[in-house]
Amino acid sequence: MDALKYEDFMRRAFGLALNDGIMIERWGDPAKWADTDVFEYENINKVKAGLIYAIGIICSEVKEHKCDALCDEYINNIAKAKSKTDILQIIKSFDDHVGKMYFEIRDGRMYLKQPKLET
Q1: In 45-60, which positions are buried (b, 16+ CB within 10 angstroms) versus exposed (e)?
Q2: Which of 39, 62, 85, 88 could form a cystine bridge with 3, CB 3.0-4.6 A?
Q3: Continuous H helices in the chain
């Protein structure tokens, strides 16, 4: 189940970049790392590199919302992660903060939320 959280995160991020917001298939990213089998401790550097790139993809979609510092914090936290548990906590926190703040999922597609117009 934990490995699936990693895979889903990777598939959503690369779907945003490569597939018009629709989650890519397993192994659908260029490096073929969007896969539960990659989420093993012996691959921790590969997992961290993939997640840092995935966070970069998601954050590039919200640049106009000025969340660079927040995204940099998550990237730094992934780089410093020592375990799969650390990584899963960072993914959850990122989804809870950046994901829910800036994106919504409808009809299997990830959409950037439209900013609310001030009246």
Answers
A1: eebbebbebbbebbbe
A2: 39
A3: 2-18, 44-61, 68-80, 84-94, 100-102
User: What are the φ/ψ torsions at residue 115 (nearest 5 degrees)?
Assistant: -65, 145
- Separation of alpha carbons 70 and 21, rounded Å: 22
In the block, residue with structure tokens 């650390």 = 86
- CB atoms under 10 Å from CB of 109, counted, come to 14
Measured in residues, the chain has a length of 119
The strand pairing partners of 105, in sequence order, are: 110
3-state secondary structure at position 104: strand
Over the stretch 79-93, which tens digit does the pLDDT of each residue have? 999 999 999 999 999
**Cβ atoms of residues 18 and 24 within 8 Å:** yes
Does residue 113 contact residue 102 with C-beta atoms inside 8 Å? yes
The strand pairing partners of 112, in sequence order, are 103
